[in-house]
């Protein structure tokens, strides 16, 4: 404690230096803690359930599939010898509105033993049982369990919430329980508001229920190993029943070759203590990259503080020499200086924790979109606190050890004789130079990375998509709760489109199954028919069902042929429109007009031949990162099974699509008040698709600039210190006739050498490290010469500016005063 008190007094004696050091450390440690807490929550933290180490996920090795059909789930559930218990679930969003604009909450379909197998009890009421998971509802009817957060938010924590009704997708459910506040489900990155049993799915989806469909892959399956059961033995047991399981769940309408693959693909088990997460798969590489970035920023801050402490130790050499002369041991002095470093680091860590809480919350908000609310547990558990403490100690050792050891090597006799002036040797000066070179090199690496990521985001944000992203509003309409027959569904969707097109301010309106950049796809293999033997394409084609005026609404250019018309409906000749990528892939780039195509027939659904009657320009389909795929557009009304939901895209005549929502809502509910509607500008959908690139560009740019400023501060500090150390020499040079301009050149020459060496080292490191970020780039080579040149010029300019001020100060030294004082 004595050393700590002395350290605090020493820091108070130099408040400016201490404040700069603590703030630099707070930013560095806080950023590292924030990134680690997100990585910990996403990658490392176990699920908040009973004994999560015994949980395993059922997957498929061949294609990485983790979703399954309900028949497959039931086949696993009905084999109790495989696991102690098994669960199935599917995350979704439920609409609580009775009609019109939607009111979505995060939901989950889950099997009857879901809460029992996970070991999650209710804090109020009960969880459901296998009796509640019967098709159509159990003895208590359709029941629901709600989360603690939803209970607080919607019901204000009312104690009488048990037994209250909750209307989900216009089906009444009864609330029977509330889960503990720490339980968010098993999908890391998501949470749930409402959970309902799988058996109630037909109540909501009616005739479109997926419970008996062998080709609808929508459930995740997790098992709990028995006590003493290993992952390997469970895998062996699962492999033993796989032939029967696969044979009993074979999709009836698959082709023969697909069936054979289905039978052969092995099922695998993976440890699932950390849960399941699509967010983890998507963001593991970007977040790990950003963790490296903030680690480099912390190293730059440490180098900066080490330079500050070297200079401060030199200024205190008289004090240290007196203490040595009075009998203090060098170990005692080193311990005191290290204590000061630990106090600095500790204060920086405390302030950094506050910064980390804010910064991590900001990052989570940046990951969220309008349709995907990201939830990560950011509590300061022992791992996060341990990481912060470890970083604080490591930084103290990194920036404090060498300055402390160097400071205790002062000769007390020389220091007393000269009262501490001029004793710092050239080796301290060289160490400061080395630290500056390291700072510049690391800053170069961060600037190159930031440049690559910012240019990637800019390229994607300004990419020509093949459609107009500014004037279009998408209304997702869901008519499934109305339980209409197929013919009535098609008629209602057409009437909704007509009502939208007649709304004031709407230039055009069109229906589609898939909207651009939504992440959704629909595709199949294709046969080309030219009066020759059938040629089966090697990879198939993406498909979209669209109504007349879809291309006009999106501003996609028609190159040849015609658009769909109202006459292109069921019973009329089957037609199709294709894009340029289709022509390049299937016809060698030749005009495909008049060619005939069809999907290879399935046993249960022979498909008609289609004539290509239109040829349109390429437009992005699923992702802005992917090349435009071969795409075939089919008439919306020629679909033999009209969908129960569709996207209604409208083009604003004024270019302000958000202003159309009120009028469109009135027009659509005027056709049928039971239609559920969700509005979203297509521009927001495109922006959401760039969430990862925006996040990486924003953070790498921020930390690149911070690194640049820290490097400039370090260069300024070491140059100013060098000028002050050489003040007598410079004064003597000027007394002997040296011009001020010569002094400026001398100082800037030294700065140029340090910056040049740092840039060179940074370039070499960047060339090596650039390949690791290749998957995160778009349209750029990882060793892009322009990016590296701009980064070098920025560093050189900042270095020149940082050295200019001390150089001008040196040029204004009065030689007479220096010689008189010396």
Give a short overview.
Helix content is 49%, strand content 15%. With 822 residues, the protein is of the alpha+beta class.
Describe the protein.
The chain has 822 residues and is of the alpha+beta class. The chain contains 24 helices and 24 strands. Strand 15 (527-529) and strand 16 form a beta hairpin. Strands 1, 2, 4, 5, 6, 7, 8, 9, 10 and 11 form a 10-stranded mixed beta sheet that branches. Strands 14, 15, 16, 17, 18, 19, 20, 21 and 22 form a 9-stranded mixed beta sheet that branches. It has a 5-stranded mixed beta sheet with strand order 3-24-12-23-13. It is 49% helix and 15% strand.
Primary descriptors:
alpha+beta; nine-stranded mixed beta sheet; 822 residues; single chain; 49% helix; 24 strands; ten-stranded mixed beta sheet
Percent range for β-strand residues = 5-15%
Q: Helicity, in percent? A: 40-55%
Number of helices: 24
Which consecutive residue ranges, at least 5 long each, have pLDDT under 50?
A: 418-428
How does the SSE layout of this entry go?
Elements: H1 2-13, H2 15-44, E1 55-60, H3 70-77, E2 85-95, E3 100-101, E4 104-110, H4 114-118, E5 124-125, E6 143-146, H5 148-155, E7 165-168, E8 171-178, E9 194-197, H6 201-205, E10 220-224, H7 231-248, H8 256-264, E11 267-271, H9 278-315, H10 317-325, H11 330-367, H12 382-407, H13 412-418, H14 426-461, E12 472-478, H15 486-501, E13 506-512, E14 523-524, E15 527-529, E16 535-536, E17 541-546, H16 550-554, E18 558-561, E19 575-579, H17 580-586, E20 596-598, E21 610-616, E22 631-635, E23 645-652, H18 661-671, E24 676-681, H19 682-689, H20 691-725, H21 727-735, H22 740-769, H23 785-811, H24 815-821
Parallel strand pairs: 3-24, 4-9, 6-8, 17-22, 19-21
Antiparallel strand pairs: 1-10, 1-11, 2-4, 2-10, 5-8, 6-9, 7-8, 12-23, 12-24, 13-23, 14-17, 15-16, 15-20, 18-21, 19-22, 20-21
Helix pairs in contact: 1-11, 2-9, 2-11, 2-12, 9-12, 9-14, 9-20, 10-13, 11-12, 14-20, 14-22, 14-23, 15-18, 20-23, 21-24, 22-23
